[in-house]
Amino acid sequence: MFLIKHFAHPRVVTGLLGTLLVLTPVACRSPRNSLAEWMPSPNFNARRPQLVVIHHTAGASFEYSLKQLKTHNDGGPVSAHYLIGRNGRIAQLVSDDDRAWHAGTGTWGAYRDINSISIGIELDNNGAEPFSSPQIDALLILLEDLTSRFRIPRTQVVGHADVEPVFKADPSGFFPWKRLAEHGFGLWPDENLQEAPAGFDPFQALVLMGYSLKDKGATLRAFRLHYRGDRGTVLDEMDLRILFNLQGKIYRNASAGDPLSSVQKGKNEPH
Ligand SMILES: [Zn+2]
Cα–Cα distance between 54 and 137 in angstroms, integer? Predict the structure, then answer.
């Protein structure tokens, strides 16, 4: 409407439409493979993300972080799909269908290219302060939307430090993982934890959860940050109880036929 109104002359409009027609094939999202004949099928939709990665910006303000996520800043270009302000304002910077640059070298379970299979959410927080209630309320609404719309298993909500334990420590120990778990997001241990049996292997449990053991010290720091809010590198009795409990939850989810997921599958969903 805006363009037509301002280029009302018929010849200009014709020229504009012609330009749009020429541009349309170029704007096609899916590049075709020159090795094959294009014989299109209408039976497809966009690929779905499988994981949500939560970050804190470590910035001073929403506006500062927005600029960092939209420009070629000092440390190289970075982005995320969403940025949530302290007041609960949600900005979307990258389409859900596209690959944002928020967890470049991370791994989680068998996933080796986290950016290709995840949605990245940045929280405006300097890393040394609690997260505000409006911000977490907004995050919970966004997680409900993303996990429902893309059928991402609700347990598959992790922190940046979980997927990049060597280099990252966000979100900080202030992040309310327990509150997220009360809404079904992420993995969280039960209140009453039984003692881990003799022979229990905590590292096997960490791998089962998705952690990499490439640098065990870094992985223990990430685990402690997530589940204890500190950066300890030695597993104590409580850690063993937590890991044994979480391992049991994963096995129970798997035997229920929906590995790592508490999402209900929709009826008549395309394959
Ligand atoms: Zn991060």
Answer: 14
Tally Cβ neighbours within 10 Å of residue 233: 13
- Please compute the mean of the pLDDT values over residues 10-15 and round it to a whole number: 44
Indicate the SS3 state at residue 124: coil
Q: List the beta strands (DSSP E) in the chain.
A: 51-56, 82-84, 90-92, 118-123, 157-159
CA distance 232 to 220: 7
Kindly list the protein residues that place their beta carbon closer than 5 angstroms to ligand 1, a single-atom ion. Answer: 55, 160, 170
Please give the domain boundaries of the chain with CATH numbers for all domains: 51-182 (3.40.80.10), 202-255 (no CATH)
Distance 56 CA to ligand 1 centre (A): 6
Give 145-164 as a DSSP string.
HHHHHS---TT-EEEHHHHS
How far is ligand 1, taken at its centre, from the CA of residue 209, in Å?
19
CA distance 76 to 97: 22
Q: Which pLDDT score, from 0 to 100, does residue 29 have?
A: 59
Ligand 1 centroid to residue 157 C-alpha, Å = 14
pLDDT digits 0-9 by tens, 90-132:
999 999 999 999 998 999 999 999 999 999 999 999 999 999 9
Give catalytic residues, as residue numbers.
122
Choose between 34 and 72: higher pLDDT: 34
Global pTM value? 0.84
Distance 172 CA to ligand 1 centre (A): 10
Each residue's pLDDT tens digit, 209-238: 999 999 999 999 999 999 999 988 899 999
159: its two tokens: 């922190």
